[in-house]
TrEMBL record:
<dbReference type="GO" id="GO:0006506">
    <property type="term" value="P:GPI anchor biosynthetic process"/>
</dbReference>
<dbReference type="GO" id="GO:0031501">
    <property type="term" value="C:mannosyltransferase complex"/>
</dbReference>
<keyword id="KW-1133">Transmembrane helix</keyword>
<feature type="transmembrane region" description="Helical">
    <location>
        <begin position="306"/>
        <end position="325"/>
    </location>
</feature>
<feature type="transmembrane region" description="Helical">
    <location>
        <begin position="269"/>
        <end position="294"/>
    </location>
</feature>
<dbReference type="GO" id="GO:0000009">
    <property type="term" value="F:alpha-1,6-mannosyltransferase activity"/>
</dbReference>
<keyword id="KW-0812">Transmembrane</keyword>
<keyword id="KW-0808">Transferase</keyword>
<dbReference type="InterPro" id="IPR007315">
    <property type="entry name" value="PIG-V/Gpi18"/>
</dbReference>
<keyword id="KW-0337">GPI-anchor biosynthesis</keyword>
<keyword id="KW-0256">Endoplasmic reticulum</keyword>
<dbReference type="GO" id="GO:0004376">
    <property type="term" value="F:GPI mannosyltransferase activity"/>
</dbReference>
<feature type="transmembrane region" description="Helical">
    <location>
        <begin position="345"/>
        <end position="369"/>
    </location>
</feature>
<protein>
    <recommendedName>
        <fullName>Mannosyltransferase (PIG-V)</fullName>
    </recommendedName>
</protein>
<feature type="transmembrane region" description="Helical">
    <location>
        <begin position="211"/>
        <end position="234"/>
    </location>
</feature>
<feature type="transmembrane region" description="Helical">
    <location>
        <begin position="95"/>
        <end position="114"/>
    </location>
</feature>
<keyword id="KW-0328">Glycosyltransferase</keyword>
């Protein structure tokens, strides 16, 4: 808790400094207060969901394509915020920040327990330090769903390592309706079942655990499709959710269909051109694969590696790389355990300093608004 509290003081100071020089923008006036500054960008969409809900008709652009709408934002976080708004009588901005801050503390506490399953106390504690001061850690106290999602993801991973499969059902249900994750977690669970089956001679895999583990994997897959199905039911369009998500990449590559495993190559071509863009993506895939087999990452154990690999494959399949990709990498936080392994004091101090500098860099690049900003967080 002390680590978490100290990190929040540092991050709040950085955010407040940037807010003091922020000019007027689409969400706030000049030099906004903390709560207003922390609820810019997509926090506005969550605010719409909390106050108004979801539209029954999809917006159509001047080009006749599906436009951006609240359907891209899942209901878990704004629903909880709306409940607290009703109970407290407070407006969206402070409630949204409060929800994120409280869940960030819960995540830090759970993360120590999770890391303690695979690492010693020193490395586990330093992994929590890295999580709390990471370049994207300001997101833990902004009006986004990440903090709430990471809490339930950490809890789900802890339950998986402890093989408490039955308790995963409600956790996955909430997690999958907070951020897109059900399909990635279903893949990790399926690989977990396969691994346990092939290693059952050394590690017993009783019939009851087989049934529960396989059932929760299927349930996670169903929950991964639940929100697209809800959008279909309400709007009458089977592709309402995916069309809405695709609207956010239209400014880069125009309106295209969702073809799995093509978006990163499209992004590579958009950012770097041919052939460098294709080569960069291939190199990234090979580098990530090699990383998963390094000694430090292998220390994290099979299950955490299966999650990181499954989520990485999910990102490769469906997401378009741009500035918000940094935020989308946050669920790979178990890799911080590998970074936390070296015990050298100079190494650890240096990594923390670099992380704090990274916070300032990310705030300047992705959060602060400078004119027609094209680097959304």
């Amino acid at each position: 808790m002390l680590i978490w509290a100290a990190s929040r003081v540092i991050t709040t100071t950085l955010v407040s400094i940037l807010a003091s020089v922020q000019g007027p923008n689409a969400w706030t006036g000049a030099s906004p207060g903390y709560a207003d500054f922390a609820t810019m960008w997509d926090a506005h969409w969550y605010n719409i969901v909390a106050v108004v809900g979801y539209p029954s008709a999809l917006p159509i652009t001047d080009l006749g394509e599906i436009g951006e709408s609240a359907w891209a934002f899942m209901p878990g976080y704004p629903s909880l915020a709306r409940l607290l708004m009703e109970l407290s009588g407070q407006p969206w901005e402070p409630v949204a920040v409060l929800v994120s801050v409280v869940f960030s503390l819960g995540t830090a506490l759970l993360l120590f327990r999770l890391m303690s399953r695979v690492l010693d106390d020193s490395a586990s504690r330093f992994a929590v330090v890295l999580f709390c001061v990471a370049p994207l850690s300001p997101m833990l106290q902004f009006g986004y769903a990440e903090s709430m999602y990471l809490f339930f993801l950490t809890l789900a991973l802890l339950l998986l390592l402890e093989r408490r499969y039955a308790l995963l059902f409600p956790v996955i249900a909430v997690m999958a309706l907070t951020r897109p994750s059900g399909l990635a977690f279903a893949l990790a669970l399926a690989l977990h079942v396969i691994y346990r089956w092939f290693t059952r001679a050394a590690d017993a895999f009783p019939l009851r655990e087989r049934v529960l583990a396989a059932s929760v994997a299927v349930f996670s897959g169903v929950m991964g499709l639940a929100w697209p199905a809800a959008a279909w039911i309400v709007t009458g369009s089977m592709t309402a959710y995916t069309d809405t998500e695709l609207a956010w990449r239209a400014p880069y590559i125009g309106y295209v269909e969702l073809i799995p495993f093509t978006a990163w190559f499209q992004g590579g071509l958009w950012w770097l051109g041919m052939p460098l863009g294709i080569l960069a993506v291939v190199a990234l895939i090979l580098g990530f694969t090699m990383l998963m087999f390094t000694p430090a990452v292998r220390r994290l154990g099979v299950d955490l590696r299966l999650w990181v690999a499954s989520y990485g494959l999910y990102l490769l399949a469906v997401f378009f790389p741009q500035s918000s990709t940094f935020r989308l990498l946050m669920p790979m936080f178990p890799l911080l355990g590998a970074v936390a392994l070296p015990r050298s004091l100079w190494y650890r101090v240096g990594v923390v300093v670099l992380c704090i500098l990274g916070q300032w860099g990310w705030l300047l690049l992705c959060w602060g608004v400078d004119g027609a900003d094209w680097t959304p967080p």
